[in-house]
Structure formats: structure tokens, C-alpha cells
Amino acid sequence: MPGPAPRAASTRQVRAQHVLFMQAVELDITRVDSIRRVAAELIERFPALNVLVNNAGIMPFDDASAAIDDTVAQAIIDTNLLGPVRMTSALIGHLKRQPRAVVLHNTSVLAYVPLAGNAVYSATKAALHAYALSQRFMLRKTSVRVQEIAPPWVDTDLIHQNGDPRAMPPRDFIEQTMRELASDREEVTVEAVRPLRDNPGAGKHAFFNAFNEQLEADPIPVA
Ligand SMILES: NC(=O)c1ccc[n+]([C@@H]2O[C@H](COP(=O)([O-])OP(=O)(O)OC[C@H]3O[C@@H](n4cnc5c(N)ncnc54)[C@H](OP(=O)(O)O)[C@@H]3O)[C@@H](O)[C@H]2O)c1
């Protein structure tokens, strides 16, 4: 599981590369003190800040048919669900004072069709989707819009980047997603996984079983 050491290194890397208009602040989304400190620093340094992208996530495998390691379950919930809730909460007052603002949540297509071998991860993404719906409703008369990206399997290091042909290359994913985001859609899903997003009510269990049997027969590769 990623820890503070690589995070500090990537923060240093962004700073060292002097990427135009890009600055890095180190945040541990699982820690309330870190969220408060970073939110206060951001508001002070960037008073026109009007976009929050809740992107951090971890995806350890689990086994819901057996005892689940509590530390791992807690880390998944803290990172994927409480992290975005706390981060939004720390910035929402500031965002509402901006003429236009956006909160963007990164969920997953697994919010709609859970991957059985990542039961807690899938549950956190379903919960984040539900939270985004409620938040959008509650903010509908303010200047803050809430958008959700529900990515498919993208070939990143979330599990193990290895060029698996079933995973979408990051470049293609970014290209399609940025196009959709520009359309102001509330929810952005790439074309290839719309059937998973539209996983129908009455047919849900058969669809879910078929999806999981397929991935059990040909699992996601790990490092
Ligand atoms: N790749 C996919 O197939 C896929 C599919 C659906 C949804 N998603 C979602 O997309 C988002 C980005 O994932 P990715 O695919 O780009 O994977 P990734 O390369 O592993 O990126 C995950 C990011 O989350 C950060 N992070 C993890 N724990 C954190 C913490 N406690 N505090 C602050 N940052 C933390 C990581 O920072 P460090 O490197 O510093 O730890 C890293 O930047 C996640 O929410 C993931 O669930 C991905």
C-alpha cells in the first residue's frame, strides 16, 4: 500500500521539475490533521481556488468470504470514502464563495458492478457515487457543481500497470474523459463501459455474476 515516503518523493519531483503553473503540496487524505492543514494552506496561497478533484484512491484485493484484515478495510474506507468527504468538507465554504466552482469525484465503474475480489473497494466507490448525488442536490442552488468520473479499468499503477489489453491505455482514457468533462456532464463514463454503468435493475444479479465469473477465470494480474 502506498505510504508517505513515495508521496513525499512525488511532491519533491513536481517541485523540482518546475512544471509551469503546477505546484505540489503533500497531503495524506486519510488524516484529518493533514486535510485541515493543507486546506488552510491552499485557501491562503490560492484565494481564487475553485476546483477540487478528489482523485486519491487505493485498491487492495480482499476476500469477503473470509475474515477481512481490519487495517486494510479501514485504510480503503479512509482513503476512498472519508477522504473525499473530509476534503470536500474542508473546502466547501471557500468553494461556495467563488463565482463558479467544481467538485470532481473519481469513483469507478465498480460502483455500479462490484468486483467481488475487491468488495470493500467497490463498496467505497458505490458509497462515493451516492454521496456525490446527494451533494449535487444539496448544492444545486449554489455556484458549486458536482461532477463524477467513473473510470473503467485503466492501465495505471492502482494495481499493477502491465499493458493488459483489457485495461484502457491512460492516454485514451484521458482524451475521452477530458472531452466529456468539457460537455459539462454530471457523470462521465467512457463509451466502452456504458453497459456496466447502465447495469439494469432486474437483470443486475445475472450481469454481476457473469462479470465476476469472467474475471475469476482470467484475473487482474498483480505485480
Ligand atoms: N486505474 C483504474 O483502473 C481505475 C478505475 C476506476 C477508478 N480509478 C480511480 O482513479 C483514482 C486514481 O487512481 P489511478 O488509477 O491513477 O491509480 P494510482 O496511479 O495508484 O494513483 C492513486 C493516487 O492516489 C494517491 N493516494 C493514495 N493514498 C493516498 C493518501 N492516503 N493520501 C493522498 N494521496 C493518496 C496516490 O498518491 P501516492 O502515489 O503518493 O501514494 C496516487 O497519486 C483512484 O481513486 C482510483 O480508485 C482507477
Automatic annotation (TrEMBL):
One of its GO terms (molecular function) is oxidoreductase activity. It holds the Pfam family adh_short. Keywords: Oxidoreductase. It comes from the Bacteria. InterPro entries: NAD(P)-bd_dom_sf, Sc_DH/Rdtase_CS, SDR_fam. PANTHER family: NADPH-DEPENDENT 1-ACYLDIHYDROXYACETONE PHOSPHATE REDUCTASE. Belongs to the short-chain dehydrogenases/reductases (SDR) family. This is SDR family NAD(P)-dependent oxidoreductase. The lineage of its organism: Bacteria, Pseudomonadati, Pseudomonadota, Betaproteobacteria, Burkholderiales.
